[in-house]
Design goal:
Chain lengths: 521, 130
């Protein structure tokens, strides 16, 4: 019996198709003390529905495929040389991403010995002493994995792309970009950037080409020649899967992750890739229960909540308020505590619930309707929209129905990666200087200080420096911290970032309403 | 106050210009676009000043909208139609210059005459309509 099989046998833990995992309401204390870690090689069964507690309630996962026995399944088996599986960084309890809460719990449980903390990318740099938690500070503090990208960039066929800019390391707190083995001056020159793992669920929303996008010469989806093609099918594909769009298909991403994050010594077989893709396409996640608002799907609840809405919704639809609201209508929850009391049937608990639901509905309306000046967002305002552009969260950058990504164009420099909007002491800082004949970054010019060049590490284009793909907004309650670089530890910090960045001047009530709204997605 | 006076003067001049033009007046100039706030429920519009005249930069379909932070090259003719964005309407091309011009950073607050403009019909939905 192999080691993995032995681990599986000793940790046999079936979860039946109709049994909800930890479905009973757990208090926040219980959530904090319980581990819902699915280790590589552990055996579980994924039936139709699973639920996992989190700080705000419970995340619900729906499987639209056949029941899955994780034993022997390539997504869950430790197929890498470092003992990791795909599930290591895509935990069901964390909306198929990985929360820093889980990461810290796993460090505490294993004293840092879990394959999650593998030197290759689970530490700030493989050359650092691996037993020291300081060597894993970006993962433990912000949930960030090291992503080494070849420098100069390489195309999908391995050929070198001549970048339009030079890069200089200004500061190297992780000591990896100047490392003699892993740095940009090594024999295999690479830029190390640090990013959060994205949720591997609700995939149809990320993989479907958009419908209903107004034709515009600048939008990738209207000029399909700008889109990549699926190497297997030859069809044009979306680029929303990864933060820098470097791999547009699930198979491509899985193969790349196997070779890098899992340190596989051989390639995934076609059969394994098929199994992984089928699994990833079959699961939907969203918050299913809120401690404060109660059940999030079924009669009396806003139709866009819960994973059932994700499963049943149409992908690739542009949500333009007020006609087509991105997350559907919330009007039925606008009745507040006072209305419930007037009905004469409200207990204190029911009143609190009604008040919270009303806050969620107000937050939805702020998200949908409250316009602000979106200004100086590279690869966004310059796509013909104008600078500034007076739109709301939903009609501006989070317009994909039910999922909340930007449907088109998608990539943008919100200010999270580049100075002056975000300055981080814990991340490397690069100085990019663009060639005179290159189109400059629209609002930063030709000399840019960046913590992560983002899309530009794929295209080599000056104008792409700092741009990254917007993310889906489901299951947020289960997967803090937020943004590609983990800038926001909480939903409130996320709201505060936007408020600062765009000088929105949300009121305290609006901020809390937005937090409550996002906590039920 | 000064802004209102300037706007009134430019509107008067523009009316004169429109009414008196027998032949198209050609324009070719580089200028900072200025964003005109139109209130909380509408996108902004843009205009540019040239020799004391205000020209609307309302965009035909194939233009990208002007951008603060960048000058625009206006190559156009005065059009025989009502003012746009509080300025003389023009036909032609407005090209956004790629290099940064940080001095182009003016947003003019919405004034009553802009706020009083009728909203496009599709935006006049009540909550009940939604």
């Amino acid at each position: 019996m192999s080691n993995s099989r032995m681990r599986r046998a000793s940790s046999l833990a079936f979860v039946g198709a109709s049994v909800l995992f930890a479905a009973t309401a757990l208090s926040q204390t219980e959530y904090a003390s319980e581990s819902h870690w699915w280790g590589p090689g552990q055996q579980f069964e994924i039936g139709e529905t699973l639920e996992f507690p989190n700080e705000f309630g419970r995340l619900r996962l729906i499987n639209t495929g056949d029941p899955i026995d994780t034993a022997g399944h390539p997504f869950f088996e430790p197929i890498g040389a470092n003992g990791r599986a795909c599930v290591t960084c895509h935990q069901p309890a964390d909306a198929m991403s990985l929360s820093v809460h889980t990461i810290r719990a796993q460090w505490a449980a294993t004293n840092g010995a879990d394959p999650l903390f593998a030197a290759i990318d689970g530490s700030n740099c493989p050359s650092l002493p691996q037993g020291d938690p300081k060597s894993h500070s970006l993962l433990l503090d912000k949930g960030l994995f090291r992503i080494p990208r070849p420098w100069p960039p390489k195309a999908a066929d391995g050929s070198e792309i001549e970048p339009e800019f030079t890069l200089e390391v200004v500061s190297d707190p992780t000591r990896c970009n100047l490392d003699p083995v892993y740095g940009m001056y090594s024999d295999n020159p690479a830029i190390s950037v640090y990013r959060r793992p994205r949720p591997v669920a609700n995939m149809k929303y990320l993989l479907t080409l958009p419908n209903g996008v107004t034709p515009h010469e600048y939008f990738m989806y209207n000029d399909k020649s700008l889109l990549p093609k699926d190497p297997d099918t030859g069809e044009f594909v979306s680029v929303q899967l990864m933060s820098d769009g470097r791999l547009p298909t699930l198979r491509g991403q899985a193969g790349d992750a196997g070779a890098t994050h899992l340190e596989m010594l051989s390639r995934l077989s076609d059969e394994e890739l098929e199994q992984i893709e089928a699994f990833e396409r079959s699961i939907y996640v969203a918050q299913g229960f809120s401690h404060e608002a109660g059940e999030l799907s079924g009669p009396g609840t806003p139709p866009g909540l819960g994973p059932e809405a994700m499963r049943d919704g149409a992908p690739g639809e542009l949500g333009n308020n007020p006609v087509n609201r991105v997350f559907g209508a919330f009007g039925m929850w606008l009745r507040g505590e006072n209305d419930s009391a007037k009905d004469g049937a409200a207990t204190e608990e029911e009143g609190r619930r009604a008040a919270f639901q009303a806050s969620v509905a107000r937050g939805a309306n702020v998200f949908f309707d409250r316009r602000f000046l979106i200004k100086d967002v590279g690869v966004y305002n310059d796509k013909g929209l104008g600078n500034p552009f007076n739109r709301s969260c939903a009609s501006g950058c989070h317009n994909t129905v039910l999922a909340g990504m930007d449907l088109a164009p998608g990539f943008m420099d919100l200010g999270l990666n580049n100075w002056p909007w975000n300055k981080r002491d814990d991340l490397p800082l690069f100085k990019a200087v663009c060639r005179d004949d290159a189109v400059p970054q629209s609002y930063l010019g030709r000399v840019i200080y960046t913590h992560d060049p983002g899309r530009a590490l794929v295209t080599g284009k000056c104008s792409d420096i700092g741009a990254s793909m917007t993310q889906q907004m489901r299951g947020l309650a289960a997967r803090a911290p937020y943004f590609m670089g983990g800038e926001a530890d909480t939903l409130r910090e996320m709201v505060d970032f936007y408020d600062r960045r765009f000088n929105i001047r949300y009121t305290e009530q609006e901020k809390q309403d937005l937090v409550n709204f996002m906590s039920v997605l | 106050m000064r802004r209102s006076a300037q706007l009134a003067a430019s509107l008067a001049l523009s009316a004169l210009a429109v009414s008196s033009q027998a032949q198209a007046q050609s324009l070719s100039f580089l200028a900072c676009p200025v964003a005109q706030d139109l209130g909380p429920q509408r996108d902004l519009c843009f205009f540019a000043m040239r020799d004391g005249m205000r020209y609307g930069l309302s965009s035909p379909q194939d233009w990208g909208n002007p951008q603060l932070g960048h000058k625009v090259l206006v190559e156009a003719e005065v059009a025989d139609r009502p003012n746009e964005c509080g300025g003389i309407a023009i036909d032609g091309r407005v090209s956004v210059m790629p290099e940064l011009s940080p001095e182009c950073d003016e947003i003019v607050p919405a004034t009553p005459e802009f706020l009083a403009e009728e909203l496009p019909a599709r935006l006049r939905l009540s909550d009940a309509d939604r």
